């Protein structure tokens, strides 16, 4: 997983913060990190204008524990993880410990409006859901896109059978709505895309755009 942090300055006061995460992207799968065919000019620009990390570590090599580490700054084994991911070698009732302090809770207590749009994979049971872990609002799939077909908004299922190739667009549109609504407030937005996690399926508007096949199409759409 790759995390990219950015900020949008408010007219006064502290900056807004957007944390973008993508799922299963390889280290050199962005043009700015050396891929010869996949073109990612927007992410490359963020890297040029910000900080380009070339030596760092995630909390684990799979979804659930790496997200636990990202959002809490703690070793996953201290947050309720033992092995696997939720839905595979990890019980469906397991997840991020409800008493864990997430960065969303830290921002929330500092007066920020907080939201997430994307893949959660930190617990499906009510105590583990994102809007109980520091997010004022959440639009999300609770597991990987190969493990579920439902989209949730807080406690409610709002789509029973999502179309996988449309998820990047849907998560982005939700994020843009949040930014526009809260542009005069300080906010923290967590945008963890499910792409390019398998099954890799390009949106119709992006199919064939990349010279690196369907995987390149999906990565370039995220960009």
Keywords:
disordered N terminus; single chain; 223 residues; 7-stranded mixed beta sheet; alpha/beta
First and last CA, distance = 15 Å
Helix and strand element order: EEHHEEHEEEEHEH
Structural class of the helices, strands and pairings? alpha/beta
Molecular shape: globular
Care to describe what's here?
The chain is an alpha/beta fold and 223 residues long. 23% of the residues lie in helices and 19% in strands. The chain has helices at residues 41-49, 63-72, 103-109, 167-181, 213-222, and strands at 2-8, 16-22, 85-86, 89-90, 113-119, 137-141, 151-153, 156-159, 187-192. The strands form two sheets. The chain has a seven-stranded mixed beta sheet, sandwiched between helices. It has a two-stranded parallel sheet with strand order 3-4. The two termini are 15 Å apart. Residues 1-6 have low confidence and may be disordered.
């Amino acid at each position: 997983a790759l995390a990219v942090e950015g900020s949008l300055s408010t007219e006064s006061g502290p900056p807004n913060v957007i944390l973008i995460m993508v799922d299963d992207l390889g280290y050199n799968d962005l043009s700015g990190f050396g891929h010869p065919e996949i073109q990612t000019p927007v992410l490359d620009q963020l890297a040029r204008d910000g900080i380009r990390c070339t030596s760092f570590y995630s909390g684990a090599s799979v979804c659930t524990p790496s997200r636990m580490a990202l959002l809490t700054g703690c070793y996953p084994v201290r947050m309720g993880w033992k092995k696997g991911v939720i839905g595979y070698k990890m019980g469906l009732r397991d997840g991020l410990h409800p008493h864990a302090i997430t960065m969303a809770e830290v921002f929330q207590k500092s007066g920020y409006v907080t939201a997430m749009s994307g893949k959660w994979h930190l617990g499906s049971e009510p105590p583990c859901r994102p809007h109980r872990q520091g997010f004022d609002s959440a639009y999300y799939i609770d597991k990987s896109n190969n493990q579920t077909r439902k989209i949730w908004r807080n406690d409610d299922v709002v789509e029973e059978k999502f179309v996988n190739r449309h998820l990047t667009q849907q998560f982005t549109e939700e994020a843009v709505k949040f930014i526009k609504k809260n542009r005069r407030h300080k906010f923290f937005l967590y945008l963890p895309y499910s792409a390019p996690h398998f099954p890799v399926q390009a949106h119709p508007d992006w199919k064939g755009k990349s010279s690196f096949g369907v995987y390149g199409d999906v990565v370039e759409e995220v960009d």
